[in-house]
## 1
Amino acid sequence: MVTTASPTLQASSGGRGRPGETWVFVTAGSLLTLIALLVGVILLLTLNGLSVFWPHPIARVTQNDGSVLIGQAWRGEAISQDSSDTDAVRMRTLYRIGNRRELGSEFQWVDDDAVKSIEHPPEIVFIERLEWGPALGTIRGVKRAGVPLADLAPDDFDAFDDLVDEARAERIGALAPRVDEAKLITTLELADGRTVDIPLAAIERIVPANAYGPVDRVLSWCASFGRFISENPRESNTEGGILPAILGTFLMVLLMSLAVVPLGVIGALYLNEYAKQGPLVRFVRLAVSNLAGVPSIVFGMFGLAFFVYTIGAHVDATLFSDKLPTPTFGTGGLLWASLTLALLTVPVVIVSTEEGLRAVPRAQREGSLALGSTRWQTIRTIVLPAAMPGILTGTILAIARGAGEVAPLMLTGVVKLAASPLIDATPPFLHLDAKFMHLGFHIYDVGFQSPNVEASRPIVYATALVLLVFIVILNLAAIVWRNRVRRKLQGSTF
Amino acid sequence: MTTIAPSPPRPEHHAFADTPQARARIKRLRRLDKIIAGSITAGGLLIILAVFGIFAFVFGEAVPLFLGSSAELVTTRSAVTDGTKALAVAIDEYGQRPVLLTDKGTLRILDLVGGNTDVEVALESLGTATITSGVVAHESPVFAAGTSDGRVLVAGIAFEPRFADGKRVGQDASVAWQFALPMVDGSTAIERIAVSSDGNRVAVVAAANGILKFATRRAKGIGTSPKFGDAAELVAGKTITAVALNGAADHAAIGFADGRFFLFDLDKADATLKENLDSGSASPVTALSWVFGGQTLLVGSADGRVSGWQGIRSGPSSSRTLTRVREFDAFDAPVADFMPSQRNKCILAAARDGALRVEHSTTQRIISDLGRTGSTFTAIGYAPKADGVVAIDASGTLHAWRVDADHADVSLAALFAPVLYESYDEPDYVWQSTGGSDDYEPKYSLVPLIFGSLKGVLYAMLFSAPLAILAALYVSQFASPKARSIVKPTVELMGALPSVVVGFLAGLWLSPAVDSDMGHTVGLLLALPLTIVLAAFVSSRLPQRVRNRVAFGREVLFLVPFLAAGIGLAWLASGPLEQTLFDGDLKGWLVRTFELAYDPRNCVIVGIALGFAVIPIVFTVAEDSMSNVPKSLRAASEALGASRWQTAWRLVLPAASPGIFAALMLGFGRAIGETMIVVMATGNTPILDPSPFNGMRTISASIATEIPEAPVDGSLYRVLFLSGSLLFVFAFLINTAAEVVGASLRKRYGKW
């Protein structure tokens, strides 16, 4: 490295006489910008993703005109100004006031100048409901079969939680009973003094965010996050969890790996061990590595035309003809998506495995052959074990690439809301023909095609964070593994 | 891999012992070795073939676009008219039972497939009159026959499929209703006639001895009393040689013997003359018809010329006037008749000499030349599904062709050259693959998509290439090895960030943030270089010893406080600055001053987001190539007194330039195929506008959003596969170029 040149050189040639020092700073600035971009993106995702589950304080905002609203501050922005008023930047704040059913809209802008007072009374709660989004207000008692429960303080949240758990039994499937049919009903007072009755069975959770201490907040955060990754989505994906998307991503990646590893290893074994080395194999190798640079959408098109419309249609015609014209495999599904991604990632595995195979010292092979082993015995007992790290690195890189790809899936079987689970108790238990949900597609769908973009944005951030963590872990594993292998091989070459 | 563990040695089978067991074992092992060698070779070849098969398959899906159309004569049947002349023919959607209107005043229902004998139904109320002309409506099987006593007899045909066990076993055809319209007085024969009908409402235009009459009537139910209109004085003194009605029955075209034709507006109570036009030929106008959709009027003349006319606005405020915009290949004989398809923009055109062609209006091509049979076709029909054509010649022979013109709307010119589409005023590159109605004219110009892809890549490279290459230069030349070992994996990790996450941040965070606060954005962008220059200046003023300690080799760390301060200052200052300089509205100022259309999801956003995705690959490859410039060269340069920047700029960069080129190529290839980022961060509007403040639509985004809905094997499906093949070829070429250049670098320095 030139930079670690001897101090005498630095001393003699340093100073103002060294031309181009400013440019060195420009290159350093480029690197810094690049790092700042990456760090910024990761911070942005992490902070936004993690704060989704934080029990944000609920404000009771009294405005100058006397109107009152209850809501969580969502975001603020400067009001674009008229040319007349130029001295100060006026701000306004968006509050999530919830109560979509009662108030018509879930969000409300409040001019910061128009605010008289903001309080955070502890008895105000945030209620997560099965339908109509959250409800915000003060609980004014609970009725059991029409009779008010007398011994219930408005801030006795443990008792409320017990009642919510009890009411869960009233649900029919995932549906809550109507107000006039429910046994347990709570009365909620809204900001404007109106009261509404909500069946307790329709309540998922009561979050008295203002009454929480720091420990409660952390616990609430954990509970929310746990529910996010373990529940099904609700309200056309704008609420609830992402469990089916996690499962879909996992299963798809698993099937893809099952397909891609043997394919890649056999391909690499052929290229490196069996094929006669020459211009043709060199060309094939070049083409295979170039294939890794072919746009993923092209693989998606291939998957659609070949797997879905050609193979799938034939499978349907021979095996599932009784179900036609409803397609079984003649439409996108888990199997076709996995195979498409396997083709997309097979060059990664081939290249990486070949690298591993090439790194096996010649002496070891020759030793094995000299002892009378057959070629296959040599490969099985000497070459493959030594190349294992390369194979595994390739696999992990393939998984990391496959897990983050979305475009080919949009053509081969991903859906916004899976109609049936991928794994269930009816044979064949794993439904290869089923359409599935995917974390990456979930981000696109909820973020860009959701009916309620503002309210679902936190879900997008949280989903993106989950996907990011998944992929970063896989990549870090691959990088660490590769570095270890390189060190090992460097040690063994001399 | 379950068999990787070395098997423990088995003492009972000593490899060297020459026992029968050992020999058998060796034989077995050799056999196994051969089997495995064979299967791996087969498997490997298969995998490699499959990998190449992908391209063949994708490309193969697009090939039928260029195979052209085919027409095959499937049936000929002579003497279908029983000695009379066929005036018009209507076909059911299976092409099984053509119905002929004969000049004897009968409707003959044939059966081309089943064994039913022909049925002949006489037109009611013909009486003693004779038939003087006859036509069929284009949109539905409704015949109109003009009589010698000035009436028009209208008959509607009902086609009904016959089912047994849920399967279609035959086709029934019957005359559903008939009525007569007295058009002119009883002594004048109807000479020319046109009819249009949606199956219930019937509109007729009839010309007789210099009189032009219009009539509308419902076929059945209430409101069956006809309404008549008259335009006699408008055509007085002219010889009417052709008449046509459009599908909506609100316009009629009348052709004259002097080569002129009129366009009538029938919407008002009285027919009004809208346009008086010269067909461009002095010979009589012999055939007129609208192409499906009613936007293009075809005019055929006695000299065999066929032209297409559509409403064109000459200026932005003027109204549309019918203009001749298309000229088809001329026939050798007078044009006899047109029959438009009711599925697409194809038309069947017949000439008096027996020539018969299928032509496509948008692409202005002859799709099939059905050849001459020697005898003039007196009745021609287009199958409702546009998959067949029927024609009866003067000798009473019926010919039926199966026509495969699924991709008639796609030609090389339609894909890559400007095309004049219906309701456009000039030829244009348009990508608009689907529309709201059946008569929509698909527009498949790939030019806006290719332009969009290149535009996105251009802005991405503008953003990422300088950043990535300069950063690579720093890491390879000026940073400490330890910094390098941290930075390289970090940037690689950046490459693993799923593009859907980058796209989502660009579309939902960056784009609204920049849109709502452009002042701060621009402030930050300006502060960045200023701060760097300032830091370099400060560093150069530091005492030598201090500088070597805090700055040399640690420029990045040295820059951090400067940059932090610069960003903070820029953030604070840009608000007031924007206020004073641009009246607090930089975006508005930009839009007004440069007359830009500002789209929040624009190319700057896409450039940053795509650039973000491209930076890792450019950085990694460029850094590798710079690090591999031999140390001896650099040492020599420094020994000759060059500064480290001079060494980097004059020596390392040129030496590593093939590698940098390869890096840029790889980045280019990565950016051009990227899908999710462009889907999410652009407005996806296919426009040809280089402005950075506009969106675009790329090839990949079009594929991703349109192919799931495209009908399999339809034109759109295949055009998208063609664009996918283009992407494939492009990416493959770029990667190969990068690889070849990289190999040359390896050769130059012996290793990489």
## 2
Amino acid sequence: MAISRAEVEKVSLLARLLLSEEELDKMTVQLGAILDYMDLLNEVDTNDIEPMAHPRDVTNVFRADECRPSLPREEALANAPHRDAECYLVPAVLGET
Amino acid sequence: MSLTDLTATALLAKLASGDVTSAAITEAFLRRIELHDGQVGAFLRVDRESALAQAEAIDRKRRGGDPVGRLGGLPVAVKDVLCTRGEPTTCASRMLESFRPPYDATVISRLKAADAVLVGKTNMDEFAMGGSTENSAFRPTRNPWDLTRIPGGSSGGAAACVAASMSPLSVGSDTGGSIREPAALCGITGLKPTYGRVSRYGLVAFASSLDQIGPLAWTAEDAALLLEVLAGYDPADSTSVNLPVPRYTETLGQPLENLRIGLVREHFDQGLDGEVEAAVREAIRVFESLGAAVRWISLPHSKYAVATYYIIAPCEASSNLARYDGVHFGYRTDQRAMVAELEAQRKCLEQAGDEAGLDALDNALVRLYRKTRSEGFGPEVKRRIMLGTYALSAGYYDAYYLKALKVRRLVRDDFDRAFGEVDLIAGPVTPTPAFPLGAKIDDPLAMYLFDLYTVSTNLAGIAGISVPCGFSRGGLPIGLHLQSPPFEEERLLRAAHRFQQATDWHRRRPRLAADVA
């Protein structure tokens, strides 16, 4: 089940990546080869097999519902590439036509 | 014998007896780093001043008769995937080049509480994705046994710094073999604990159901010492288990009566290098001579492990790495240039009257994400994000991700059955010794297939260790892989220790010329 260049381009948007023409070409070939290899799994009969998402059978782990200190705003913002005194700043998107 | 040739256990004895100070030991290892790391490239950052200050503080404690922690003044190197408060934590990625975490990973807190001297952060494949450390955005690490070859990965710096005697102990992470594989290729001991044994809090996430932190050192004895400090329940990681941590160093010398070792038939199949096979078979004979009963077993689904792993790990990675958006922390593209480019594209489409093109054009926020991520991530990380996103996307989810999760269950069932018959499973860690830098860089699938013996340990969530068991004719180290049922690290360490009492592969040291000034 090889992957087409158009699909690779579509996935790059889903993945929030922007690939150059050259990268798209290379990615199409490489992902194609990798996905071809994955077809090996079609040999395996997995009817009635329960999927295993995790090595341990964990259920939700709750802590007591009590107030605890959280990361102070200044520390949370300290690594932001672009910010003001209180918020992360991003390019305007609302109000676009 | 110089201090840097000694094991952590031997150094600790000297520290405890007052023979030597932590400052002297730390200085000796820092000197090794200065002499040799220019050519090896194991470290991304060396904290000389703070390491010496920590060492002196611990020496003062000891002199004053105050209690000293378990690692009482021993240098420890830390893979740059573990958050250190206020200090750069890059994951060897441009994306995190300037990131300074606001908190310490739990294992960092535990190391500090144990009075370890943190000497620096080690190089790795970007975001721990790779098996050669060539995917570091900053520099490759070279194998101390042959500088033209890779050290393995992704914890390549962690393994190389121990092998080059630049640190007696080192902490790595293992998602599909990233501790065991570089340990094997660098001729040292590396242990991947059972999933849940060590807290992952503050470990930058790659694949959350597979990642585990563990020790690298020359000997099983030293690995036991470090694991005692790393392991334990942590309320901040809900997948860490609330089980007591055995005193691994105390039980290490206890004999393993009636040990049953299984050899996986499928692992001695085509693709295994003859010299690696010979060394591993010889290691098995050593265990037999020590009284172990060896038998062949089958893990029928092992041939599907690589395909299963390289669906599940990228799926989890694509989700985990969605957080790198150029907004909250880390790299961000030049916003002004990005907006100008977008406007130019819009004008161009408008002039052409291309309505469909205009509809498809990114808005500024989406373009910010896309430019940021494309500039911040290297090729292998992009490849895995793409693979994971594809395998999780509508229409392919069942065929890839769900299918892989089902085969994962079968891989785990194979182990459960096998461990009904044997106590440990033994085999090779890697199909060949270390390969030359660049040999597989353009062939991702070949790189993935190099992981065929190690990925199932992570899929199943069990424990595994790599132990030096020989050398190729070309002088490259070879590793023996031992795997145990969940939470039987004690058994692994005892077996590895017993083996190391009968062999001297773990005592060999590479010869490194001083860096050319």
